[in-house]
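Sequence in, structure out. Go.
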Amino acid sequence: MTENDIKWIKKQTSNRLIDVLADEEKIVELKKDYKYKKSVLPRLQELGKIIYEKATYDIQQESKFIRKLINELNDDPSYRLTSQDMTKCNELWSKYKT
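Output:
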């Protein structure tokens, strides 16, 4: 490799890094995704634990539903629960928390 090749590589690498770090909109979205995950995930995990402890016939379907939501949140930072998901979680919470 020549000296010019090395300079070109360094320039390309540093520009891409600056582009990623300087894009404030991307950083704001990442922070929103992180906050959402940190807010919702522990609640879903607790709900899954409560369902598991109650061990009823419905446990497989309900537990599978909660695990699916937890996996989605872990796999995709921009994933959001739908209103139907939240309604179902609230119903399960009421059912098992008492």
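Check: The helical segments are 3-22, 24-54, 59-75, 83-97. Residues 24-54 form the longest helix (31 residues).
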